[in-house]
Amino acid sequence: MAITDLIEIPPIINDHLTNARQTTMLALLGSPRGFYDQECRDVTNPNLALLIIFEKVGPLKVRGLAPAVASLRVIFEAIAAREPDVYAGLGHAGMLCVRHVRGSSTSISNHSWGTAIDLTLNGVLDRRGDGLVQAGLARIAPIFNEHGWYWGAGFRTEDAMHFECSDDLIRQWHADGQLGTGRAAPLVVLSLGDRGPEVRRLQARLNRLGEKLVEDGEFGRATHAAVMAFQAAEGLAVDGVVGLQTLATLDLA
Fold first, then answer.
1. Residues 45 and 169 in one domain
2. How far apart are CA 176 and CA 248, in angstroms?
3. Are residues 146 and 234 in the same domain?
4. Where is each Peptidase M15C domain found (predicted)?
5. CA-CA distances (angstroms) from residue 61 to 91, 114, 168, 175?
6. What CATH code is carried by the domain that includes residue 145?
7. What is the DSSP string of 129-190?
8. Number of structural domains in the chain
9. Which residue range forms the structural domain that includes residue 35?
């Protein structure tokens, strides 16, 4: 089978990994710039810019957050040793790119911090959203997972070309002092702009209480409004942020 042949998404991916929450990224790295749209723009935050490097890593030249680039170097070494034919075909379609998640007006792409990369195989980009993945990407995804990177095949809209640093990995770099800030790590919460299976579970909880949300894993305006309505009904602080108290009250409800 060629590395660009399309196969079904493997049954076990991203085990125990969560894509980095927007709350985590903004708290620990700051906002990359003051304005976002669907265009790929550069970082204007001077503190974040100090952490951005441009280096050759394995067969690729990449521009991204320094610890993410260092992690990619280790990952590519493992791919070269374990999947040499995939390694020989590796290319990429970008790492640092400050913009919203495609199709969203609230979620900031993790490319914006230089902590995500879109890979090509033999110059071919995996088609987003078709529910199939290139065989070579499926073979190297476990290696990315082993090093704390989340595979985009796990998103509601399959994005198999995309790999990004997980929330735990970002928090570990912060704990190790690699992010250059003295900020405290935020509590694990869900808020406007987040996405992933935890958001989908939140939407399912709210729907069981009478909401009619699309369970798409996207914490958009409708989910934000539903959370605020629940908080108001339960006498909680109405901020639209799902922290420990809101989660505990949802469990009781």
1. yes
2. 30
3. no
4. 103-164
5. 9, 13, 26, 28
6. 3.30.1380
7. TSSEEEHHHHHHHHHHHHTTEEEGGGSSS--TTEEEEBHHHHHHHHHTT-S---PPPPPS-B
8. 2
9. 6-175
Q: Are residues 171 and 202 in the same domain?
A: no
The upper half-sphere exposure of residue 137, i.e. CA atoms within 13 Å in the direction of its Cβ, equals: 34
| Whether residue 121 is found in the same domain as residue 70 | yes
The CATH number of the domain where 241 resides is what?
A: 1.10.101.10
Q: Do 125 and 25 fall into the same domain?
A: yes
**Total residues belonging to the chain:** 253
Looking at the structure, do residues 34 and 148 belong to the same domain, yes or no? yes
Domain-located, residue 21: yes
- Local confidence pLDDT in tens for the 253 residues of the chain: 999 999 999 998 998 898 898 889 998 999 999 999 999 999 999 999 999 999 999 999 999 999 999 999 999 999 999 999 999 999 999 999 999 998 888 889 999 999 999 999 999 999 999 999 999 999 999 999 999 999 999 998 899 999 999 999 999 999 899 998 667 777 767 888 887 778 888 999 999 999 999 998 888 889 999 999 999 999 988 989 898 889 889 887 7
What are the structure tokens assigned to 68, written together?
């993410």
pTM: 0.80
What are residue 60's phi and psi, to 5 degrees? Answer: -120, 150
